[in-house]
Model the fold of this input.
Amino acid sequence: MDLLNKVESALDTIRPYLEADGGNVSIEEITSDNIVRIKLLGACGSCPMSIMTLKAGIEQAIKKAVPEITGIEAINLTAMDDPNAVMPERLS
Done:
């Protein structure tokens, strides 16, 4: 099985959870240094928790199933998804 298919299989294990919340993910590219570039789709693309989904869900699933992957990057995360940003519920 090639690298792309391995990564797709890993994503298939978490897709039901993403889809349950109205989101999904697509692989845009796997670089020559084995970094997977993904695009968060649907609700995942605009969710304030998308960085958490990326790190705790997507990245862990891929790295566990495909250890040769060195990193995961979401190409459509915005500055609002900065893990160090103050979330609106914390402003009060």
